[in-house]
Amino acid sequence: MNNMKRIPLLIFFLAMVVCGIGVHIAIQKGWYPVAIVNGKLVGASRFEQTSTSIFHYYTQAGQFFGASEEDVNKVNRHEVRRVTLDKLVENELLLNKFQEIKKADFDERVMDRIATLEQENPDLENAVQELYGVPLNQFKTFVLIPQAREEIVAGEAFETQDAYLAWLAETRKNAKIYILDPVLTWNGEQIVFRK
C-alpha cells in the first residue's frame, strides 16, 4: 500500500524532469519569443540570426572599405541588436497591413521582385554569403521578402511616401508591443535600451 502512494509522486517528479529538459532544449534552440507584436511572436532564433548577420555585414563592409580594425570594432553589437529588433517589429506591423490589403497576386509579386533581383545579380548568393554570412534562402526569409512586402504596401496602400511614413508612425504608437529582451524595451514608438 505504501508503494501505491509513491507512484503519483514519482510520476510528478518524472513529468517535472521531462518539462525541464524540454524547456532547456527550447532555450538552446531559440524557440522562445523575444517580442510580442499585436499578439504575434518574434522568435529569439530569428532575432539572433538576423542581428548576427547584420553585425557580420558591418564588419565585412568596414574591412572592404578599408576601415581600421579599431573603427570596425566600434560597431556596437547592442546597437545592432536594437536596430534589428526594431526592424523585426516593423516587419510584423507591415505584415499585418500586407495581409489586410492583400490582393490575389501579392505573394506572386513579392517572389517576382526577388526573382528579378536574382536574375539581375547572378553573384547574389555569393555576395550574401560573403557580406552577411548566411545562405541566400535565409537572407530571403529575413530580409528580401519583408523588404519586398514593405515596398508593395508603401506603393499600393498609400499615395505618397509621406502618407506611408505617417501611417507607420501612427501604427507603431497604437501597437501592443511587449519586448522580452532584458536589455531592450518599447517606448511607445521604437525599441530603446532599458534604463
What does this structure look like?
The chain is mainly alpha-helical and 195 residues long. It has eight helices and five strands. The strands form two sheets. Strands 2-1-3 form a three-stranded antiparallel beta sheet. Strands 4-5 form a two-stranded antiparallel ribbon. Strand 4 and strand 5 (191-193) form a beta hairpin.
User: In which order are the strands of the major sheet placed?
Assistant: 2-1-3
Task: Give the amount of beta strand, in percent.
Answer: 5-15%
- Please give the number of β-strands: 5
* Termini gap: 58 Å
- List the secondary-structure elements in sequence, H or E: HEEHHHHHHHEEE
- Shape label: globular
Q: Kindly provide the radius of gyration, computed on alpha-carbon positions and rounded to a whole number of angstroms.
A: 22 Å
Mean pLDDT: 86
**Largest sheet, strands/sense/barrel:** 3 strands, antiparallel
Count of individual helical segments? 8
Uncertain stretches of 5 or more adjacent residues? none
Helix amount: over 70%
Structural class: mainly alpha
